Amino acid sequence: MGVSFDKIDGVIWYDGKLVPWADANVHVLTHGLHYASCVFEGERAYGGKIFKSTAHSERLKRSANILDFEIPYSVAEIDAAKQLVLEKNGLPDAYVRPVAWRGSEMMGVSAQSNTIHLAIACWSWPSYFDPAERLKGIRLALADYRRPDPKTIPALAKAAGLYMICTISKHKAEREGYADAMMLDWQGRVAECTGANIFFIKDGKIHTPIADCFLAGITRETVIELARKRGIEVVERRILPEELNGFTECFITGTAAEVTPVAEIANWKFTPGAITKQLMEDYTAEVQPKKAAA
């Protein structure tokens, strides 16, 4: 086990200024903790540049709006703050975490006048999965919990409360020897993993679930664009679990996971192949800062 996250040495951008890591605290009676009025982003920096920083900042603002609050900083200000945190911590390659939440002025369900806070941290975080395991394909369990009907929860926000069932599902999967779990949606169709989108390959075509009850990830969007540049057809559609026997390859995508092959989902088996390997390489090339021509 590494250093506890409250013990890391560095600085965090907190409500407009840099503070020592240990001083970036909130009160225990904070609305974001008790009522999940909290949104966040997960981003990666490569060679000192945050990949698709503005797209992440825009999504952070949208997520807050869905939860009925306004982050008191512009997208440009959030982008600049993230870059400052990266530079001040001396981490050209890092995971970046902006988080916004309602404060402590009111502790009832209604908290319309609460102060909205924003903090941004970054830290070193290698690949989400063990490198040796990742190359041969990870193993996924099938989660008991399902992604909820979007009529019952703000499913298109990257909000803290939506990850409760993800944590439970990932813990159960890890106890059973899996790396993660695949979740179905409320109608029993394939949805996503606990923190990553999922893709399948059959006859040279890529198939992925329609993202209408879970986040259409920024990495997901990037990989779809990369595949289409290669002339690979990408089909976004409803996928039923009984179809999984017909797919030959499977991979997942996310800021933390990047592009990771899957070898097994419960009783379904896959063999990481040429298309998955090509997209892994293309994604790595895409996120690396482009060198200026001589």
In helices, the fraction of residues equals 25-40%
Within the CATH hierarchy, at the fold level, what is the topology of the largest domain? D-amino Acid Aminotransferase, Chain A, domain 2
Q: What is the correct CATH architecture of the largest domain? A: Alpha-Beta Barrel
Distance between the termini: 44 Å
Total domains: 2
Estimated share of beta-strand residues: 25-35%
* Major sheet details: 9 strands, mixed
Number of strands: 16
CATH class of the largest domain: Alpha Beta
What is the average per-residue confidence, as pLDDT, rounded to a whole number?
Answer: 95
Task: Summarize the structure in words.
It is a single chain. With about 290 residues, the protein is α+β, with helices and mostly antiparallel strands. The chain has two domains: about 10-125, D-amino Acid Aminotransferase, Chain A, domain 1 (2-Layer Sandwich); about 130-285, D-amino Acid Aminotransferase, Chain A, domain 2. Helices cover about 25% and strands about 25% of the residues. The protein has seven helices and 16 strands. The protein has helices at about 30-35, 55-65, 75-90, 130-135, 165-175, 220-230, 275-285, and strands at about 10-15, 15-20, 40, 45, 50, 95-100, 115-125, 140, 180-185, 190-195, 195-200, 205-210, 235, 250-255, 260-265, 270. The strands form two sheets. Strands 8, 9, 10, 11, 12, 13, 14, 15 and 16 form a nine-stranded mixed beta sheet that branches. Strands 1, 2, 3, 4, 5, 6 and 7 form a seven-stranded antiparallel beta sheet that branches. A hairpin with a 2-residue loop joins strand 4 and strand 5. Helix 2 packs across helix 3 (about 75-90). The chain is globular and about 55 Å long.
